């Protein structure tokens, strides 16, 4: 793609996501709870920018003749994204749009809260693993598998935790 239109793809995607976040608190009673947590919601709202700016730099950097290692920017941004998400995940109220949404977390607010507190730690640690690999591992080919493994492992752990919590809740 030519650098000029490529420069606008990531910001356009970020703008659509930003507008979606603008609408979410107005889409129902349960999603309105997000508006009562302005700091947490503001961090979630800013996350698309955290990832799209480095992606945009990777796309237009080589076209503009930048020779620095832009391939490390995206994995580092994904690591920061996981860290920020981990920091706010435990504070998310039950809602229909954002968070760990499976049948167990949607059925019980207590399961939601405990799963998200656990998931916050999982995403925080995973973010540091991804960021560390982006900054310390000398070969760029390592990043996609690291990000994929961390994301799948985090999803599996959070799903298993919510299932265990729901099972314990039913047994009580």
Structure description:
α1 (3-23) runs antiparallel to α2, α3 packs antiparallel against α5 (109-136) and α5 (109-136) runs antiparallel to α6. With 172 residues, the chain is an all-alpha fold. The model has no long low-confidence stretch (mean pLDDT 83). The N and C termini lie far apart (58 Å). The relative contact order is 0.12. The longest helix is centred in the last third of the chain and has 29 residues, at 143-171. The protein is flat, with a radius of gyration of 18 Å. The protein has helices at residues 3-23, 38-63, 73-89, 103-107, 109-136, 143-171.
Structural key phrases:
single chain, 172 residues, mainly alpha, flat
Morphology call: flat
The count of helical stretches stands at 6
Largest sheet entry:
none
Secondary-structure-derived class: mainly alpha
Overall strand count:
0
Rg over CA atoms, rounded to whole Å, is 18 Å
The secondary-structure element order is HHHHHH
User: What amount of the residues lies in strands?
Assistant: under 5%
Low-confidence stretches: none
Beginning-to-end CA distance, first to last residue: 58 Å
Give the helix level as a range of percent. over 70%
Question: Structurally, how many domains make up the residues?
Answer: 1
How confident is the prediction overall: mean pLDDT? Answer: 83
């Amino acid at each position: 793609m030519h650098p000029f239109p490529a420069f606008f793809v990531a910001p356009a995607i970020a703008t659509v996501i930003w507008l979606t976040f603008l609408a979410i608190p107005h889409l129902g009673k349960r999603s309105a709870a997000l508006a009562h947590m302005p700091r947490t919601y503001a961090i979630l709202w800013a996350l698309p920018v955290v990832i799209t700016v480095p992606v945009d730099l990777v796309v237009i950097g080589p076209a503009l003749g930048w020779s620095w290692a832009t391939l490390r920017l995206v994995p580092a941004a994904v690591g920061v994204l996981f860290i920020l998400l981990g920091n706010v995940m435990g504070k998310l109220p039950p809602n229909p749009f954002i968070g760990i949404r499976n049948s167990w977390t949607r059925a019980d607010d207590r399961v939601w809260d405990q799963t998200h507190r656990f998931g916050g730690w999982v995403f925080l640690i995973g973010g540091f693993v991804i960021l560390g690999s982006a900054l310390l591992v000398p070969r760029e080919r390592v990043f996609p598998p690291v990000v994929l493994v961390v994301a799948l492992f985090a999803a599996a752990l959070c799903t298993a935790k919510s299932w265990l919590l729901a099972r314990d809740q039913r047994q009580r």
